[in-house]
Amino acid sequence: MIRERFEQIAQDAFDSLPADFRDRVENVHIVVEDYPSDDALGKVKSDRHSLLGLYQGIPLTHRGQWYGMSATVPDKISLYQKNIESVCSDEEETELRIREVLFHELGHYFGMNEAQIRSAMKRFL
To answer: What is the DSSP string of 29-55?
Structure first.
């Protein structure tokens, strides 16, 4: 799949979120990369070819009253295109997996743990 199509699917997935969630996402940069960097891999227990996405930042639930009072680097959600495509057999499955991975990483942005993310995703998928 070409990068522009992959990015459009991710954008469409984000746009499909209910407004009350979508409107709460601020200062987050969503990027598509082929594979995770060595720096990203150092933050998780995964290998280069199995990590599908990664949230890097300060979850909403951990931000203190001073968050954003000075220049703040955006949080980052990375979607790893080659890894996502490697676990999918066709474009329809790829679209679903992009949506799942994006929603999962947004769950981390909102401060959810894995069980909370799985429960919340049942409403969106």
So the answer is: EEEEESS--HHHHTTSS--TTT--EEE
